[in-house]
Model the fold of this input.
Amino acid sequence: MTEPLIIETHALAKRFGELVAVKDVSLGVRRGEIFGVLGPNGAGKSTTLRMLCGILTPSAGTGQVVGHDLATEAERIKQRIGTMTQRFSLYEDLSVAENLHFYAGIYGVPRAERRARVERVLERSGLGERRRQLAGTLSGGWKQRLALASATIHEPPLLFLDEPTAGVDPVSRRDFWDQIHRIAAEGTTVLLTTHYMDEAERCHRLAFIFRGELLDTGTPEQVVERRALRVAELQVERATEAAEALRGRPEVDEVAHYGHLLRLATRHGVDPLALAGEVLGALGLELERAQPARVTVEDAFVSMVREDARLRRGQAS
Done:
């Protein structure tokens, strides 16, 4: 936390006519961090990222990215960042190496350095043996790897990734995250958007966005701890009946089916094992197996979203 801020925003907002896509988002991202902006589809993640990239002008609020003002120096921001979107945007009729040479030129890598830079990136990204392969013939995972290599060919201090692992198989996703951590360890800040909650566990810090508003920020551990949830896994006969009974208790945050198991999350530090024993015992249902489970970032996010919904219903009534 001693590194300087490379992104700093205050009450950032974006409106499209009557639609408020992003409202009062204040963020601070430090050099070398992997910072995840998480939320469901339509939450405002991509709009926030496009403002930070200098693509969209904020409707309100202030911010600085890589030392430049969002409102007045958008073009200078674009020159100093790398971007990668979920849509494969490279040239499919060019080879892997030709794409890298092209983007090295676009990003202003000096001509005298381009060949050596491309060779270095090919080897570090594992693309060396595919240098002559047309980009359009690559699998999803290799396309993703090429897109990341192209976005970082100019060695930017800040890298933006918008839903970078959408539609990619689990093995390629893990390989991709290994590359992201290597890039961050070398000093590049990475800000990414995703709706995959399991990926949140791989970030240094997180921001949760829902309905265009910031719900919470912090490390994965801090976000989970603040929700004060406890979780247990239960195996019980007549699981559907048991789940309905548990959902009727005010202490219960969520009951979800996972195969033959029920995953019970409780609020305010209530012991889920004791609660399950009490509720199911009253119904004459036998707990065949019960054990505590780790609270995840996904548990915390679902809890925040449901609390937000409860508050809105309360205000409406």
User: Anything to note?
Assistant: The chain has eleven helices and 15 strands.
